[in-house]
Amino acid sequence: MKNNYYDEFNEIEDIISKNLENRGMDKINLRGQLESCVKSLDRSKTVVIVTGFAVKVAKVGETDGPPGALALAYALESLNKKVIIVTDKYSEAFLHIGTKLLNLDADICIFEENKEEEQSEEILRKYKPDHIIGIERPGRSCDNRCYSMRGEDITSFCPNTDLLFIKAKEKNISTSAVGDGGNEVGMGKVRDFVIKNVNKGDIICAQFCSDNLIIAGVSNWGAFGICVGLCLLNNNMIMYDEQTYEKVLKKMVNAGAVDGCSNKREATVDGLTYEENLEIFVKLRSLAEANIKSLVV
C-alpha cells in the first residue's frame, strides 16, 4: 500500500477549490488540513457529522451539506465505523431519506432550540465519539448569532450545535469542519482573513475554531474530497457512484430542499447547475478510482 499521498491530496484540494473566488475565499492557504482530517477520521471508531443550513425565506434546509454528509457517512460505514448525524428540523427529512436510500445504520439526532446543552452532553456521553465534523453547518458569530452569506440573522432557524463542538474540544475530541463562505462552524480558524476579504465578513464569520478546516467552492465538494482521501488510505472504493449521487440529490429536492443562493427548489447547489456539481463529483471519484487501480496493477 502506498504510504505517501501528498500529490493526490493536493490534487483533491485543487479540484474542490474551484469557484472559491466567488465568495472571496480563494486566497486562504490551508494545505494539509484535508489530509489531517482524513487521517483522523480513518483512525476513529465513532464519528459525529453535523449538517443542515436553513434558508430563511424558504424555511427549509438547502442542497449544500446533507448530500456531502451522507456521502461521508456512507464511506465511514463502509469502513465499519459508527456514524451519528446531527441536524435540525429544517433538514431532518433529507437525512432520513438519504440514510434510507443508502441503507445506512447511522443514528440521526435532531437538535432543538433550548435543549442544545443537554443534547450535546447526551451525544458525547452516549456515543463517546472520536471525531466531530461539520459539513456546511451555520456557526455562531462573535455576537452569538448565526448569519446567512447575505448577513441575514438566521439564529432562530439554527439550534446551537456550536455547543457540541465546544464541549468536544474540551474533552480533546478531534474536530473538523467543511465550509465555503466564512459563516460555517469551524471558520474561526481563518477569522482575520474572512473579516478582511469576505463580504460582511466582520458580521457573519463564525467564531469556533476547528482543529481541521477544509474550505471548498461548495461544501459538498469538500465532503466528497474527504471521501476520496479515505478511499486512498484504504485502497478501497468507498465512495458511491454518480447514479447514487443523482438519486440522493433529487430525492432531497423532491422533499423540499432548496438551492441556498437561488432559494428555489431545484437540483442545483449554491447557484451552480446540476451538471457543474456533477462534474466535480466525477473528477473526484475518478481520481480515487485511478489511484486504487494503480495500486492493484
Characterization of this structure:
With 297 residues, this protein is of the alpha/beta class. It has a single domain (6-296), classed as Alpha-Beta Complex (inorganic pyrophosphatase (n-terminal core)), CATH 3.90.1640.20. It is built from 11 helices and 8 strands. A 6-stranded parallel sheet has the order 5-4-1-6-7-8, with helices on both faces. A two-stranded antiparallel ribbon has the order 2-3. Helix 4 links the parallel strand 4 (82-87) and strand 5. Helix 1 packs antiparallel against helix 9 (219-234). The protein is globular, with a radius of gyration of 17 Å. The chain starts with 5 loop residues before the first helix and ends with a helix. The mean pLDDT is 95.
Q: Can you describe this structure in just a few lines?
A:
The chain is an alpha/beta fold and 297 residues long. It contains 11 helices and 8 strands. It has a single domain (6-296), classed as Alpha-Beta Complex (inorganic pyrophosphatase (n-terminal core)).
Specify the CATH homologous superfamily: TON_0340
Helix segment tally: 11
CATH first level: which class? Alpha Beta
Mean pLDDT: 95
Number of domains: 1
Low-confidence stretches: none
Major β-sheet annotation: 6 strands, parallel
Which structural class should the secondary elements be placed in? alpha/beta
Query: What is the architecture at the second tier of CATH?
Result: Alpha-Beta Complex
What order do the strands of the largest sheet run in, or round the barrel if closed?
A: 5-4-1-6-7-8
CATH fold annotation: inorganic pyrophosphatase (n-terminal core)
Percent strand equals 5-15%
* Element pattern in H and E: HHEEEHEHEHEHEHHEHHH
